[in-house]
Give the backbone structure.
Amino acid sequence: MKMIKTNKEYTLKIESVSSEGHGVAHIDGFTVFVPQTAAGDTVRAVITDVQKRFARARITKLIHASQDRCEPECINYGQCGGCQLRHIQYDKQLEIKKQSVESAMQRIGGFTHFKADEIIGADISLRYRNKMVFPVGEINGETVCGFYAPKSHDIIPLGDCILGDELNVKIIDTVKEYMTENNIKAYNEKTRYGVIRSIFTRKSFSDNEIMVVICSAVKKLPKDELLIEKLRNISDRISSIILNINTGKLTLSNENVTLWGNDTIFDILCDMKFEISPNSFFQINPAQTEKLYRKAIDFAQLDKNTSIMDIYCGIGTISLYAAQMAKSVIGIEIVEQAIKDAKKNAKLNGIDNAEFYADSAENIVPRLIEEGRQTDVIILDPPRKGSDEKTLGAIVKSGAKRIVYVSCNPATLARDARFLAEYGYRITRSAIFDLFPHTCHVETVILMER
Ligand code: SAH
């Protein structure tokens, strides 16, 4: 085998695209991943990093372009890295995602012949996101706002991101203008000096409104009335301006002060109204989420005698939707604020057969099952790291007839489904959803039955 060395350039034929959205090639049988390429490309690429079992390379020249390619149509493409599949035609993107789920289920799950029943693509693949976070920083004395470069906290200043609302760019420019005019500095993580950390926007598709959250390292913005006036002048679609006071870590804190307008924003999902506070988790592509939830409920086969447990329930979106068709629902979620929202949203939608617990799944699911709570159907929608053996072990003991597993990570889905299969559950239906067009992310729902 040839020695593969960093900085050496090769001509590579791209054979396929990995689950991370990187083109896959081989040099004498050794795997090389090349971002921003497509199956069928021939490229010149320079090796950037060599590991034990694979190497990474950067494309330097496209020698032959694959038929799967299309124009990326984004001014930030190439720098941003957020849309790994932007250069690939949409129907091919769907094939890549289907392949990546099937391959995980076969390899990791041991479901040798697994094929997904269907993949449901998005009708709208632009401006589908309802949430965006733009870190603010400084480069050569100038305030910049954009996205983090991959695996770093260096900010790449960017123009309009066409996954989000077109107003975002104006909001960013306005905040920067306010900062420059009033000599307000971006917060610097290293020196711990400065004021503004990031700009966060949340959009309501149903009301066409936007909430602007300014994440700040200080308790009061200097001359905040000037910022409010400027932002309000952009558009009457801006329905609230909130200061998130965050003297500690990077993510949003729990301390919000409404500078102007409403404290929360409302959106509609599956004909239900949800009140969303700045910190609550809410699926970021509502149009596709509706399709996903409807399929999950279809898999659950509910009637007025069914008792459900919805584990990892967030603000109770699936729980409340399911409750309308079932006898009762127990929702379980670790974030306390999300459970408060879930209870509020139950009232808002006139639902009285759902109860919610703020606790970790691994703690409370075994306890509730031990107590003998009746559960005919279990719905679970864990974060990327998947569920755990305590929770899954309790699910198995519950005697539930059906398990509906919603997953944003095929690898952990495959691992957990394998566990459930060892205890007598069989995969009977499956569907894949594209909630994040142009990125490598994919959402899967499977039904497992005893
Ligand atoms: N089903 C919801 C939320 C899914 S996201 C929806 O569709 O909107 C996954 C959720 O799991 C998050 O809200 C997260 O806070 C929660 N979570 C993460 N780890 C958890 C754990 N160990 N126990 C319970 N909930 C957890």
In short: The chain has a mean pLDDT of 95.
